Amino acid sequence: MGWKMEHLYKIIIGAILLICLSACGDKQGKQISAIIPLAESNPDSALKALSKIDQIRLSDRDMALYALVYTMAQDKSGLVVDNDSLLRNAYNWYHDKPTDSLYAKCEYYMGKYYSLNDSSEKALRCFANSIKVASQRKDYYIQSMALLQSSVIIREYNPDLAIRYAKNAISTYNNVKDGPQSNKVYALLNLAECLFYKDGDTMQCINLCTDAISLAKQLNDSLAIADSYQDLSSIYSMNGEYELALQAARKVYEYNGKGDVSSAMCLSLALCNADSLSQSLAIIHKIPRKEYKDNGSAIYSLLHTIALKEKDYDGVNAYKDSLIQSLSSENNENAEAKDRYYSSLISKERLRAQSQNESQLKSGIIVTLALLSIIVIAFILYIARYRKRQMQIRSVDMQKRKQLIIDHQRTQISTMRNYLMSKISILHKLESLKNSTRKQVLLSDSDWNELEVFLNSSDDEFVERLRLEFPDLTKKDIRFLMLIKIGLPYSTIAQIYNIEPKSVKQKLFLIKNKLGLKNSQKSAKEFIVDY
């Protein structure tokens, strides 16, 4: 009898609390839903409006909606969303609700996050889900964007399918009403890049870039004009037409403003390729020193290239050291920023849980006035449940703090290892570039042998284990994985192989099958780092 009464009281109190919380949640949810159109038309204003929402008092459903709308506004304002801590709230809520009107959007933005973090398979899966549901709901904007992003991922290893996606993205976007016309410019540029990867049909690619420039000029969009000229410059450069590449780069500099770092770097690189080294240096020296904090690795890399061309070997060594220091500083700053973000997130989640408990307590007090005959027992049960939840929260909080400490220790160990690695001679033996129009850092067999000995000594016979366990790996594959193992940034690996940094990611993706990871969720990079 006592158990039945206790159970009954729990049901009554729970129902009343649910009604109170639902009423509060609906109000919050409506406020956030009203911001969705603003996120698409005026993202900066949307971000300001969202900042006034009290996240602590949001229900799980409203928190998911808040996370998705906030991510949309960030993306529309040009911010790169490379952290999934907020977006994950939305994904966990919507990923099994394909009939929800926001499902396609959530899958699209989660796909963009994965594509920025070397998870091509996961990104393609999310984009495929987004394309399917967006097509059913006739959400042509999201469908077109997901098609475009898919083509970007696969264009290096499956250009035919990438071209089909790129063309579908253009035709689909033509059905979008009141969408940004500048997106058509970028869709044309994407198709040009896909075609270039297939057969290098330079004229067709140039014509598409020219069409994009014309459309951007009609829209009077200086940024789109500059980006179109920048793609045109890249195509000319890859085709060895450095004078035409330089002409296009000057247009980038003209339209995007002389204070823009990316425009300055584009023009400086084009001048370097055209052997106008003094002019290239003059452009770099105009870049304010404060910009070196965020763009130091790219700037020092270009200065290193110029020094090699000038045979200024003292400069080569100096810029190489600055480049390594800049990359290390950027990595440390990123790690510290993530630590701060996660600490803040944990604090907010703890406060949100406490706020929800306080809200339940207030609802219990309201129920007391109407149900005085049963409130004493219900309140005692609630307090017991509250204290248990508080203990659980403290326990979870302590576990998270311990994990943060462990992660910090791992970061320190990794930093020490990187410092020791910087002392081996292979990183100080970059040879001069050959007399060719392409720039490639050549490593001698003795350099590769030295790196192999180092890895076998420091990482439990890493190279020998690779050879024995994965006989399908070629000598070139093993050397490539050696560079991944020692943690070289993609930009440096790309310089060694004379390819684009994004091609390094695709090469990892292609090696995945040889490592027996065909059906694994784990990426090749993760496997090699942990191997």
Features:
531 residues; mainly alpha; Serine Threonine Protein Phosphatase 5, Tetratricopeptide repeat; globular; disordered N terminus
Summarize this entry quickly.
With 531 residues, the protein is mostly helical. It contains 24 helices and no strands.
Q: How is the CATH topology of the domain at 180-287 named?
A: Serine Threonine Protein Phosphatase 5, Tetratricopeptide repeat
Q: What are the low-pLDDT stretches, counting only 5+ consecutive residues below 50?
A: 1-5, 16-25, 429-438
Number of helices: 24
User: What is the CATH C level class of the domain at 180-287, in words?
Assistant: Mainly Alpha
Mean pLDDT equals 80
CATH homolog superfamily of the domain at 180-287 = Tetratricopeptide repeat domain
CATH architecture of the domain at 180-287: Alpha Horseshoe
Radius of gyration: 28 Å
* Beta-strand residue percentage: under 5%
Percentage of helical residues?
over 70%
| Main sheet record | none
Tertiary shape: globular
- Terminal Cα span: 60 Å
Give, in order, the helices and strands: HHHHHHHHHHHHHHHHHHHHHHHH
- Which structural class is indicated by helix and strand composition? mainly alpha
**Total strands:** 0
Written description of the protein model:
The chain has 531 residues and is mainly alpha-helical. Among the domains are: 180-287, Serine Threonine Protein Phosphatase 5, Tetratricopeptide repeat (Alpha Horseshoe), CATH 1.25.40.10; 425-530, no CATH class. 77% of the residues lie in helices and 0% in strands. It is built from 24 helices and no strands. It has helices at 2-33, 36-41, 43-51, 60-76, 87-94, 103-116, 120-137, 140-154, 159-173, 182-199, 202-219, 222-238, 242-256, 261-273, 277-285, 292-309, 313-370, 372-421, 445-458, 462-469, 475-485, 490-497, 501-511, 524-530. Helix 1 crosses helix 17 (313-370) and helix 16 (292-309) packs antiparallel against helix 17. The longest helix is centred in the middle third of the chain and has 58 residues, at 313-370. It is globular, with a radius of gyration of 28 Å. The chain starts with a helix and ends with a helix.
